[in-house]
Predict the structure.
Amino acid sequence: MNIPWVKDRHRVWKHVAIVSALVGVVAVVGVAYYIGFSNGFQQTRHIVVEGVSNPTSPSTANFGTFWDVWNLLKQNSVFKNKVQDNQSLVNGAISGMVSSIGDPYTVFFPPQEAKDFTQEISGQFGGIGAEIGTDANNQIIVIAPLKGTPAESAGILAGDQILKIGATSTAELSVEEAVNEIRGPVGTPVTLVILHQGEKTPHTVTIIRATIQVPTLDLEFLNNAGKQDPQGKIAYVKLYNFYEQSASLFQQAAMQALAAHAQGMIIDLRNNPGGYLDAATSISGWFVPKGKLIVQEQFQDPTKTQKYLSSGPALFAGMPVVVIINRGSASASEILTGALKESDGATVIGEKSFGKGTVQEVMPLNDGSMVKITIAHWLTPDGHMIDKNGIMPDIALTVDTSTASTTPTYGNDIDAWVQRAVQVLQQNSSGN
């Protein structure tokens, strides 16, 4: 073994002397520690912390160590300016408590971050246009790039790992922290280090941030050959999200399909990252017979499981339906897919969906901060837990079988997955 300081005899003895001295110190400290440890059980300490309001704690929790560390930071930290801000210390402690449960979707937002989050969910924002989340290893990944956004133009794909954002590694970032790193002024660049699924070598891509207007729905009619045809009897609905306008836009598309006497429907949910529960249940009601189960919401107390039933109009109940999903189909997409598959008999084709089956509730706090907490799991009508499991297709397709695995092209060049859906509709219509 090459130990550099062995070559210097004087340094060797110096280290030996230091070790000997340390042994003596350890012996003294050991006696002192034992005495203090024994007295600690006999004489409890009441810690008074100045400048902190509401210093109470649950009766089953011991906050003594917390206040010990608080005082030690105040007295010893070289970062004096930072430890002088009591509220920042409290916010940091709250963030640590929230993150300790290991759920990337349970997050504490201090006041300014809470304000930013509220603006973010308004539907228009500056960024690259990609929904992100975490995989089973808590790695930041792309759930889905959104149609017509800089992320899609840059070749970002569902399932891509985001290893770095600028100079910042994502290894220790939460989803919200990663989002904040990606966001920035419109027109400015952000550089990502991306690893595509199945590849071993990451690559760097620079994307110019833009104002993101999220699309919602497209409707086309196809003939039995899978070509776009205004007189076709197959309604092809590409649903991009489940935001505020989704249910009303789907209603408009549904009325057009009924007026065209459509005999089958394809619902394309590829790269649809989800959205509002109400939108998913409303759209499900067009297919699932009234009174049948759409989805179940399982809380901390399983006896309080809430069941969402179809309220109709169920005008497409019994119509041959094919749902297309991929690894970018998440959340509300999985709720709709599960409902149509298990309560209406629709055929699901594509890849296993993402597996985002949890419910978050945003709870505002008195000081302007807020906490987003996962409060429930989604279960399909048959009791299948969506989270981490996803929805399995009835007919599995792979990316290699499609010439356009992200967004389908319209006109006379509908992609291979849509062509496969048309074939399945024809088989189902003929009874084969």
Notes: The longest strand covers residues 370-379.
